[in-house]
Structures are given as structure tokens and as C-alpha cells.
Amino acid sequence: MKKVILSAVVLASSMLANAQKAPKLETFQDLVKVPTHAGPIASNEKSLGVTIWSDDFSTPANWTVDNNGQAGIDFGWNINNVSDGWWSTAGINSTSGGNYAELVNGDAQAATQALNVVYSLTTAAPIDVAALGGSNQISLQFEQYGARFNDLQEMLISVNGTTWVSVGNNSDKPVLSASGGSAYSNPDNKTINLAAALTQLSPGVTPTQLWVRFQWTTNYPNSATNPNVWITYGWYIDDVKLVTNPTNDLAITGSDWGSVGLHYYQIPTAQVAPIDFSADIFNGGINNQSNVKLNVNVNSGQFLGSSAPVSIVSLDTATVTVATQFTPAATVGTYTVTRNITADSTDDVPTNNQLADLSFNVTNFIYARDNNTIAGSTSNGTDPFETGNLYDIFQDAELKAINVRLPNGTNGATVGTEIYTRLYSIDPVSGDFVFESESSPLVLAANNLNTNLVIELDPYVNVTAGTTYLAVVGAYSSGLRVSNAGTSPAQTSFLLDGNDITTSTLFYQTSTPYVRLNFDPVLGLDNQEQVQQVVIMPNPSNGVASLQFDLLNPSDVAISVLDVSGKEVQNTQMNQLTAGTHDVTLESTKWNSGVYFVTIVSNGTTMTKKFVKK
Q1: How far apart are CA 261 and CA 255, in angstroms?
Q2: CB distance 252 to 279 below 8 Å
Q3: Are the C-beta atoms of residues 121 and 101 closer than 8 Å to each other?
Q4: What are phi and psi of 438, to 5 degrees?
Q5: Residue 28, class by beta-carbon neighbours within 10 Å (0-12 exposed, 13-18 middle, 19+ buried)?
Q6: 88: closest CA among 128, 163, 156, 32?
Q7: So what's the architecture of 1-18+247-525 in CATH?
Q8: What pLDDT was estimated at residue 386?
Q9: Backbone angles phi, psi at 565, to 5 degrees
């Protein structure tokens, strides 16, 4: 087909490296308005050396609160044993119990949040680390609870009470919204190594004065006039400690795997390519570490690989990649991968030397970025949108369909919404999108939800090796919601706020939408456009209505009519209809007023139309 070049917001892909906009701001409609009560969860955080200082908020005077001029228990920090915020009624399940610190900024449900505020909670007196037997090699530990929205939850330190250095934040936590994410574990144990910051602030000298601060504000200062950026679920802090660092402590702080920068959980046999494994390794211990390696084991010894050994000095980070790529066999199979790091010394905290096992499949014809574990969904409020993933093509192939999964239920996709799938390629020179194909519109019926929905492109697309494609599902109106499964590296999964790639705004998302490529060669055989010219007359109707359709070939036909709740109100089976035009009476005089969905099935082809009974 003739390619239509579209001027697009420039994006980044694994094959095409370009800039990209920041993630989309969460709106009030995205807010989870029902409190989430997370029970105690075994923490993966490390337990370090000796505690040299601690505070459990039993004495509130040990802390200085600056609530930026805001008054009342509903704004800023407070210290007591009662949850005062709108979201959580239970507070934090801390080890010590009793008092804890809580951050609040109004009631989001009542739209009372304060704007343009910075709330801080600081140790009232400086901590004499030297007198307590510590050194620059210490870490900050604390227990916390809460959730993240558009806010910035930050930790800072100072050695003079004036100059403050940020040492950590909770931006690594997923955003909790109606589209997915989660609250923190209750409690969540956080550890921040302060050695690098203290070495910078007081080089070669153990501090005799150290202040610790917890600070809250918006994570989007450039959008400070937007009330949504000042919403918070709340942040709860307890059992704050300073502890000595271990002698030997390597930790995996980041990891990646995949082909040319993208990881796939389902790979068609025709798209198998070499896979890289890499990791970021931080030396948080006192000693320098030598012979540090990342080790990979696929299917219990089918493939064994390691990175070249490196030395990592104390407080430094090294990025390592397994020296030999792993290429799966081009046959259907399942692969389980274990990854860990080793060094010459015995690690004092081995719990952070191992990554969670990962598993992926080589399939006949499905190409999937999602991990098939559904967790939340993507929506765009009341606005139309498209969402999907980038895919790299390594061998020429004919793409016939895009598979999607749409959730049902209270927060699911709306029956009756008209959706479509589209495929774009990316111009390797300009970075512009190139429209390739789209499906016929599909009006969602109840049986389209919570299932692997196959939507064929029209026409099919001959995708070419060396090209990156963006596969999306979209809608021109509200009502679309797309299931998410797993996470994506930044700038590899996207939400287009609107339907016009030339004028709409593109955002990347870190949740992976369930939008897959389908190369099934059986699709389309003997049933292309089998059901044609479908018309319901009159529509709307307050009496009898007629369903007319054309068949391309002789076949059996099944007609099903569902109401908006998914209840079937008519089921008509017709055997061996001839090719040509057919007319079926809808039993609409028996139905209540409302919206109905008429589905025609013939030779595997499904066509759905909306009908309104007055």
C-alpha cells in the first residue's frame, strides 16, 4: 500500500534513539478513592550492621515540623498514633507501634489540597555520628507506608543545618491509580546508603552534626497551577535509624534483558534474535570488590554465561553485560532464566545479589511485550486515546492481526464502545510515524472483554526486517480501557492522548499494555469479508427491526443479541445460507428500551452492530 507520512511527536525506540515527552500527569479521575489496606509483607530490603541512632516518634519534640504556613491536622506533617488523612484509616503497621509521622495535604475527594507547598520533617537536634561510634560509612533506614500519585516524597541530609542534599526518594515506586499500581507494603523498609553524600559533604571527616529530613512537595513543579499535582494519598514514617554499613556488600540496583534493547515474553519463531543480559551493580560496603560478575543460567544449564570480571571501588556502580548473547532455538519452547552476581569476597548481605527469575516463550506466531500477568489497565478518562507497544522486526513477515485484552467489570471497558487497532512504522531518518494499516471498527460486546481479542488489520502488512513498529488499540470516544501486564522501559510503551498522530500528545508509560502482534497464517483464509453490508433498519426503533447482511460464500450463520449487561435476548441459528443478501427479523418488540449488540458469526468471521430500542 502507499505509505502516508505523518508528522509525529518524536519517540525513542530500540532501533531509533530519539527524545520523548515525560509521562502523563495523573488526573483526579485516576485517583483510587477507596482506601487500600496493605498488610505486612516480607521486605526484600537488606538489614545492615549496628544501629548507632534511632527514633520511633514517641517524643514528638525530637522533630521539627515546617508545614509551610498551613494550619490544621489535614495539612503537612503531624506526629501521633492516629491516621488523620482521607485515604488510610489504619496508618502504618510499624515495628514499634505507637506514634508515627504522617504527611497529609487536604482531602483529594473534597478538593481541599493546598497548592505551592513544601512540607518538611527534620530532626530537631543534630546527630553526633562520631560520638556514637559511626563513620561516613552509614545508612539511613526507616519504615514507611503510603502510595505515590503526582507527589515527590524525598529524603535529605545536612551537616550544617543549612545546606541540604537529597539522598533518596520514592520515585522508584509505581503510581497508584485507577489504571494500576499499588500501595507500598505496610510497612515498607527503606535503606539509603549515605556514604557517598557524607564523603562529599565532609570528606575524610566523620560528621559531628547530621540532620535528617523527610520532605514532600509536587513532582511536577512546572504544572504547579494544576490541583492534581498536589494530591497525595499520604505518607507515613516510623522507626528511623542510622546503621553502620557492612564490610562487603554488592547489590543489583538495576537490570535489563532483551534483543536490541526490548524484552519480549512471547517471541515468534521467525523473530528469534540474540538476547543480552545486563545489570547495574553497586558496591555499598566499606571494602573495594574484585572479580565481580553477573551470571546467567537458562533452563538449568542449557545456557551459562557471565560478564567479564570487573573491580568496583566502595560506593561506585558498574554496569556489566553477559559476554555471550543467548539465542533461543527457532522452535516453540519455554525458557526460565536465573541471574545473580558473585565476587571474590563473601557478601555480608547476599539477599540483594539475586534477581527474580524470569520466563519467556518462543511461540508459533504471537509477539508479546506484556508478561500475561494482568495488573491494572490504561485509560484516558473521558478522552479518546491510543495505547500500545514498540516491536522490532528481525525477519520479513506478513502481519495479519493485533491481539488485545480489555478488562470488564466496574472499571472495565464499556460495552458499545467502537474500537480499532492500528500499526505505524517509524521513519528511520525523521523519526516520524508512518501509517501502515488499521482494522475495521469493532463495537465492543460483553463477550469481547476479559479475553484475548484478535482484531485483523485491513489490509495485512508485510513488515520488514530492521524496522521498528508501534502497534496500538484505540477509540474515538470514551469507554476504552486496556489491560496492563508487566512493566516497560521508558519510551517503549505509549499512550497517545487523542487519535490524530499529527496533533495529539504522545506520552510514554511504564506499564505494558496487552497489545500484541499476531502472525497467524490461518487468519483470513476463506473468510475475508465473509459478512458484508450489515444494516439494521430502523435504528433506533420502538417496534420491529430488520437485520440485513450479505454473505460472500455459502455458510452457516449464528446471530446473537446481547443487552448492555451481557444477557442474551435473541439467538438465531441458520444453516447453509446461500451467498447473497439475507434478512432476519429482530425480536425487538419484546425487549426493554436500551442499547443492544447484534453479533453475526459466519465461517469464523464476527461482525457486531449496535441497536437502540426506544
Answers
A1: 12
A2: yes
A3: yes
A4: -150, 165
A5: middle
A6: 32
A7: Sandwich (2.60)
A8: 95
A9: -85, -5
- Measured distance CA(120)–CA(72) in Å, rounded: 15
Q: Which of 407, 524, 557 is nearest to 454 (CA)?
A: 524
Can you list the residues of the chain whose pLDDT is less than 50?
1-21, 41-47, 526-527
pLDDT at 25: 77
My answer on whether omega of the bond before 384 falls inside 30° of 0, hence cis, is no
C-alpha cell at 241: 535509624
Grouping H, G, I as helix, E, B as strand and the rest as coil, residue 29 is: helix
- The whole-angstrom separation of Cα 262 and Cα 486 is 13
Residues forming beta bridges with residue 570, ordered by sequence position: 561
Structural contact between residues 512 and 486, judged by C-beta atoms closer than 8 angstroms: yes
Spatial contact of 212 and 123, defined as CB atoms under 8 Å apart: yes
- According to the model, what pLDDT value does residue 525 have? 59
Q: Rounded to whole angstroms, how far apart are CA atoms 158 and 197?
A: 9
Would you state the pLDDT for residue 48? 55
Q: Which residues of 284-306 are buried (b: 16+ CB within 10 A; e: fewer)?
A: bbbeebeebbbbbbbeeeebebb
3-state SS class at 283: strand
Residues in Cβ contact with 59 at an 8 Å cutoff, skipping those fewer than 6 apart: none
State the span(s) of the chain assigned CATH 2.60.120.200: 49-244
Residue tagged 543549612 (cell numbers): 162
The pLDDT of residue 65 is 98
Which residues on neighbouring strands pair with residue 535, listed in sequence order?
Answer: 548
Cβ neighbours, 10 Å, residue 432: 18
Confirm if 26 and 378 have CB atoms less than 8 A apart. Answer: no
Going by the DSSP 8-state scheme, the letter that residue 108 receives in this structure is G
DSSP 198: H
- Residue entry with cell 526490548: 262
- CB neighbours of 125 closer than 8 A, spacing ≥ 6? 62
Q: Domain 49-244 adopts which CATH fold? A: Jelly Rolls (2.60.120)
Which grid coordinates are listed for 224? Answer: 504547579
In single-letter form, the type of residue at position 33 comes to K
Does the bond joining 207 to the residue before it have cis omega, within 30 degrees of 0?
no
Q: What is the pLDDT of residue 23?
A: 62
Q: Identify any residues that bridge with 98 across adjacent strands, giving them in sequence order.
A: none
Give span(s): CATH 2.60.40.3080, the chain: 531-613
253 contact partners, CB below 8 Å, separation of at least 6: 280, 281, 282, 317
Q: How far is residue 229's CA from residue 220's CA, in Å, rounded to a whole number?
A: 6
The overall pTM is greater than 0.85: no
At 362, list the grid cell.
Answer: 518462543
Task: Name the grid cell of 91.
Answer: 496508618
C-beta separation of 288 from 313 below 8 A = yes
Nearest to 238 by CA among 99, 392, 398: 99
365: helix, strand or coil: coil
Distance of CA 188 to the CA centre of its chain: 20
Task: Decide yes or no: CATH 2.60.40.3080 for domain 531-613.
Answer: yes
Compute the residue count for the chain: 614
* Region(s) of the chain under CATH 2.60.40.10: 1-18+247-525
